[in-house]
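The records we work with from here on pair a chain with its fold. These numbers are not coordinates but entries in a learned vocabulary of local backbone shapes. To see the layout at work, look at the sequence and tokens printed below.

. . .
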Amino acid sequence: MECTINKNVENCTCTYKNCSRRGHCCACVEYHRTKNQLPGCLFSTEGEKTYDRSVENFIKLAGK
């Protein structure tokens, strides 16, 4: 399967614009998994802006 980084960047909701993994979703997921986190694209717009990618924060925000 071919990676479509240019297309992914257009739809990426992460607000960290300088990330080297921006648009490279498989690298983003791998990076956050090693830190026991979730990628910003799984959070709501407001939740993503906190930059707290922890699973605990995701669960807390999902319960609101």
